[in-house]
Design goal:
single chain; 290 residues; alpha+beta; Sortase, Chain: A; 2 domains; 8 strands; 34% helix; 20% strand
Amino acid sequence: MIVRGVGKVLIGAGLVVLLFVAYELWGTGLITSGHQNSLRHQFERDLGAHQGVTPPNGTTQTTPTTQPTQSVQNPVPAPSEGQPDGIIDIPKIGSDYVVVEGTSTDDLERGPGHYPGTSLPGNPGNAAIAGHRTTYLKPFYNLDQLAPGDPIYVTTLQGRFQYKVVDTLVVSPDDVAVLNPTASPILTLTTCNPRYSAETRMVVQASLVSPVVAAVPTTKSLPRPRSLAEGRGGWSSAALWALACIAFGTVVWLMWRRRRKWWVPVVGLVGLLVLFFFFGALTPLLPAGY
């Protein structure tokens, strides 16, 4: 009897682990997809307003043209954290995403994040962007396929800028030297390496081909490492969702034992929804990985 009970618990735990893996690989993409749609519309509105153009049907065409901008726009300050900085387009790997300001857990759920304290794209110095590689729509999944000479386009309120890949590095996760200011205008992209691991960081560096714009003053410092307790809602939120999952699991088990099986699918679906939110609260508490 005890062996049977332990076996059922282990089977249940294994099922939860499998569901968590599915959430990480595919469920997180649903979250980011919703954010990206909203951010793209917001950036298109901001771009139209900045250029003094009223876009047709309330939208602005931001699809990259064949040539980078040759006009130098006025300096634009960095947006607040979590707001759109621009759009990064890497044709070779099919990566086209809105870049947000910030690299916190919540920021990178929305899309690739611009490191606060580094230059904005198109400006003098080092413009650095981080992105997930295997979760949250995996914007930098194929970053390892880039080779010297490959183009990278970044569209901001200041214009559209073209970069050319010059080098790919692999560094330790705590090596922030790749974010240091540089004399020449470059773009630095960072992501986890290898895939499905945060053991090292892959860094792609590209030089600016387009004309450089006037620098935007910034007083922000480079981001510090985040504590495991700084996730969305912290441990208390994850614990509450875990208790809710246990409660729903208990209800399903009791209904099954009492032969009220017609209610099991309904309660089970609600339980899966609660489990989804539990995974969302648990993910930020795990060791950071891009």
